[in-house]
User: Fold these one by one.
Assistant:
Number 1:
Amino acid sequence: MTDKTAPAHEINWDETRPQLIKMGLELGPLVVFFIANARADIFVATAWFMGAMVLSLALSWIILRKIAVMPLVTGVVVLVFGGLTLWLQDDTFIKMKPTITNSLFAAVLLGGLVFGQSLLKYVFGDVYKLRPEGWSKLTLNWGLFFVALAIINEVLWRNFSTDIWVAFKVWGIMPLTVVFSMTQLGLLNKYAPEPAPSVGTQG
């Protein structure tokens, strides 16, 4: 008798398609931000970025019938800090936005671990199935990753030109996030739930 066991994380396109849509909706406003900054300036780009973020959240609700927590929090921070940028004509606020959002995500994830809660499970629990130890390690890794992104943003906007900061924000952060996600695949496989014993007759 041949016992075929599916890979722990075989691609399920019914689950992957919404993830690809979400990635596109998250990347779209950043591309708009980059183009508007290249054609005009940071203030025009900020206004377009705010509008594109609202449209992205609306499309997420229309297409996926839900808005994930992280894009929602990011959208709120964009509107608040973008509004301050336009009102005060000071681009410091929009440049600090990634630091604020990444620090907030890091604080929530790492703070949850302090109280024994792997909060990342509530974000990715519908995509990955892990043992509790796996969720704790994955949450710690992502929390530290968000800390690193916050530090990188602070270094960039304080020491480099606005164009360099915008370019890295659009074309650097997403690839870094994808590469980091790929480095976690080994953890996902290592802490996948043990397969349930098959029920059958032995002859």
Number 2:
Amino acid sequence: MPTIESLLHSAELPDSPSPRLDAELLLAHALGKSRSYLRTWPEHEPSVAQCAAFATLLERRRAGEPVAYLLGQQGFWSLELEVAPHTLIPRPDTELLVETALALCPGGPARVLDLGTGTGAIALALASERPVWQLLGVDRVPEAVLLAERNRARLKLANARFVESAWFAALGGQKFRMIVGNPPYIAADDPHLAQGDVRFEPASALVAGPDGLDDIRLIVAAAPDHLEPGGWLLLEHGFDQAAAVRVLFAARGFTQVESRRDLGGNERITFGRWNGESPRGEQHAE
């Protein structure tokens, strides 16, 4: 029978950027153990069923399926979240949005809206850090809302809730101290859509028109109707879209508009403050 060490040594994942890590995560999952167990017991001989399960996971990974979908979970912030193919996989760069939101509104009660919540990652990270905040996450996909609620219940975060809504459509006249979101922002013809993990992620959560800005335009236009005076809008966007997004914010009447850089040095999020007045008295419908 093969050992843990020999299974890891023979695992072939030539197209993965992190083949050893992927193999360890998948084998630990097949065994129902932690990665530290693999290092502690390298001579352990997994059962025939466990070896078969590992082989199946490797085959799916070689076909390009994301490790997070294979495991059914992904770490984000300080949380472990359930993930599924109808939601985006939370990524480390999005933690910048959480960090910035916490810095802009450092204390006191606040109502915060997370648009396109998916797994609930952003809303739940903020809820875990600010118990006095009330988080509302919305998503137009019913399965995503149910998934986010499962994550909330497992994490026991009573100050968050999730509802089905296409952006602001189901919110009526509700207003918030802060609105955050990681909307679709990839152009429809972007070649990256045919590469890597994104091939398996839902296109509706990735693609937003010819230039990738369709959803961001809608959100920027409608957000002031749901912001308290002095409230903030924070959005993640593509690495090369910051300048265009800043123009959208400023044209809508947001002030203190800035962009922040992600771990790779790219301008990844843009935020601005709403002071209650549209340029030239313009009215914007949702």
Number 3:
Amino acid sequence: MNPEKPDRITFRKRPQQERSIQRVDAILSVAAALIAEKGVSAMKMTELAAVAGIPIGSVYQYFPDKAAIVGALLDRHSRRIQQKVEEAFSTVTSLNDAIELACGMIDWYYSEFRSDPAYLGVWLGTDIDRDILQLNIQHSNRVAEIFLASIQSFLPAESRIDLKARTQLFSHLIGASVRFAIMSDDDMARRMLHEWKQVIRVTLLAEPAP
């Protein structure tokens, strides 16, 4: 079970009415654009309010500080990825199938987010805030849980793999490798991800040495 998120990275007041929901969506849309343009650290709350055409007090009504906005954007990206992972792994038929689905998810992840500079900006923002980094780790672990649940019934009874530890590690490494690829030239990015998929095929479910 994931720990509660700290108050500073959660909604101060969750929007209920349609007008409030639209206002929060406008705040997050402008925040995503500003982050894509200049990064998390350079985005100012006052600038965000001005560009969105919303009083600064209304911004703080929903978000206690900039970290809460980054957290909300990260949640949006994370839910999108988790939904795709759940859909992909709902039809696993074997361990080999699961590994190939994982490799396919890498291709989807890269293609889907390479053209989304706000995603990369938000992720880079996790490095400057411990609470946001923890939120990203929780997301990565949730993806690992989905994968683990999909393969559990196909594992041999004598398997000695510490699957919880291994799947959490690989989930984190896959996310990091895709983000590294997004920051690279497209040709090199695809070559690196091809090599990474080869590593995954050989090692993800390999039994440990005796």
